Structures are given as structure tokens and as C-alpha cells.
Q: What sequence folds into this?
């Protein structure tokens, strides 16, 4: 049974509506009651009640031309970020590696069976990617996700894999459980994961796990165009870079 089905229980409709409003405002920016009601398929009175409640809780700000998210979300985001152990060390290592390599460097963790991006830095030669801090991506099509999966407890890995739909993102995307488990075994053997144009055509990525004993805290990755990220570089200097950065974060975690 998929993870979402196993964990699905009684839900509260009004809470769902409230979060749908928040999601819409994040996506669209400042908009009014009528537009929100039309977009979400609820009556204006229902939407207005939720907006007033969210405004009262200082989650939203009402302005002349509509509602927008309040700065309370910045406070929440800072609090969430500080709950991650050694965030300052993660930021320093990601920034340093981006400067050294000139590429995109990211740190990700597992949340809700996906890889969530905690921090991202871009070097001088970095190409643009769709990932941004706080967003999620499938674990089966990213090096960060596969690397984290490889070192999660076996039961948790199986639980996540069972929930996957394996939708192909590119021609190289992993599309089956058996292929994914082969990938995970290879990652454990060599100590790093590779995304060979599996999430975005033309981009390759290499990542290393960050562990604390038997626990997997997350993974750090370098991403760049396949023209620069050759097989030799992926398995050589680039994998060395991420493994060294991961080791520094691990040491600081152990002795903090």
C-alpha cells in the first residue's frame, strides 16, 4: 500500500482550504477574494472567512488590491532552518564548494518521501536549475535523493520506494524499483551518487551522504552541464569534492 494511503486518516476540510489559499498566494502573489474563490472552486463567503481568519492570525496581509503572505513566513522559515543541526557549517561548506568549483552546490534532506532543498549556492559558471530552497524533488531522479535513500534504514527506504510512481522526467530517469535498488547498491559501494541527466536533460550531478553514525542527515551535491561533468570528472575530482565537504560537515556534527 502506498505511503500516502497508509498514513491517510481523518482530515479537516477547513484546514485544507486554508493551506490551499496559502499555496495559491505563494504561487500567484497578491490576489483578491473573487480570484481566489474562482481558482479554488469555493464560494466567496467561504474564502472570505478563511482569509479573515488567516489575517487575524497575521499569516496574511490585506492590501487595497488583495491579500498577500505576511513576513511571519520568514520567521517560520528561519525557525525551521535552525532546527537542522549545524546549519551554519552546511552553509559554509556549500558556499565554499560553489566558489571553488564555480558550479551549483546544494544540500538536501528527506521529507515526506522526497528530497527537500535546505541550502543552495551558485558559483561563477553555474547554470540555472529549477530547484530552490524549500522545494521538493523526486528521490529516484536526483543524485541527492538516491544518495539519501541508499543510507536510510532499510524499512524507511522500502516505504518510500513503495510510494513512488516512477514517472520518467528524461530518457535517463530510473523507472522501476529494481533499477533503483541497483542504483542504491552502487552508491553504497562507491560512496557517492550520480544523476546522469536523469532529472534535467544536459545536466549531471554527483552527491555524497552526510552521516552521523548510522543516521543519514542529508547529502551535498554539485550540479553542472554534461559537457563539463564528464565521466572521469564525476568519478574523480567532483566526487572527491562532495565527499570532502560531507566529511567536514560530519566532523562538525560529531564534535558539536
A:
Amino acid at each position: 500500500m502506498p505511503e500516502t494511503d497508509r498514513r491517510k486518516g481523518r482530515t479537516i476540510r477547513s484546514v485544507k482550504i486554508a493551506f490551499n489559499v496559502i499555496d495559491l498566494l505563494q504561487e500567484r502573489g497578491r490576489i483578491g477574494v473573487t480570484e481566489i474563490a474562482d481558482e479554488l472552486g469555493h464560494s466567496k463567503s467561504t474564502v472570505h472567512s478563511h482569509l479573515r481568519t488567516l489575517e487575524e492570525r497575521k499569516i496574511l496581509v490585506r492590501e487595497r488590491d488583495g491579500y498577500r503572505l505576511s513576513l511571519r513566513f520568514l520567521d517560520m522559515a528561519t525557525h525551521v532552518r535552525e532546527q537542522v543541526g549545524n546549519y551554519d557549517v552546511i552553509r559554509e561548506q556549500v558556499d565554499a564548494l560553489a566558489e571553488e568549483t564555480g558550479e551549483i552546490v546544494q544540500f538536501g534532506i528527506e521529507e515526506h518521501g522526497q528530497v527537500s532543498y535546505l541550502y543552495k549556492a551558485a558559483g561563477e559558471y553555474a547554470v540555472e536549475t529549477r530547484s530552490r530552497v524549500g522545494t521538493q524533488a523526486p528521490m529516484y531522479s536526483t543524485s541527492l535523493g538516491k544518495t539519501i535513500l541508499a543510507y536510510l534504514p532499510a524499512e524507511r527506504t522500502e516505504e518510500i520506494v513503495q510510494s513512488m510512481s516512477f514517472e520518467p522526467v528524461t530518457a535517463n530517469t530510473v523507472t522501476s524499483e529494481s533499477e533503483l535498488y541497483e542504483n542504491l547498491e552502487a552508491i553504497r559501494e562507491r560512496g557517492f551518487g550520480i544523476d546522469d541527466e536523469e532529472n534535467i536533460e544536459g545536466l549531471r550531478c554527483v552527491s555524497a551522504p552526510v552521516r552521523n553514525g548510522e543516521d543519514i542527515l542529508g547529502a551535498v551535491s554539485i550540479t553542472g552541464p554534461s559537457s563539463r561533468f564528464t565521466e572521469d570528472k564525476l568519478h574523480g575530482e567532483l566526487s572527491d569534492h562532495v565527499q570532502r565537504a560531507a566529511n567536514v560537515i560530519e566532523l562538525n556534527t560529531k564534535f558539536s
About this structure: Confidence is low (pLDDT under 50) at residues 1-6.
